[in-house]
Amino acid sequence: MEYACGVSFYVANRRRFVAAFALLPLLLLLTACPRPVSQPTQSLQKPLSIAADARRFRILPAESQLILRVYREGRLARLGHNHVISTQQLAGDVYLAGDILQSSAELRLAVNDLEVDRADLRAQEGPDFSAPVNPDAIAGTRSNMLGEQQLNASVWPDIIMRSRGVTGAYPMLALQVEINIQGRLHTLVIPVQLQRDEKWLRASAEFSFRQTELGLVPFSVMLGALQVRDQIDARLLITAQAD
Question: Is residue 213 part of a domain?
Answer without folding.
Answer: yes
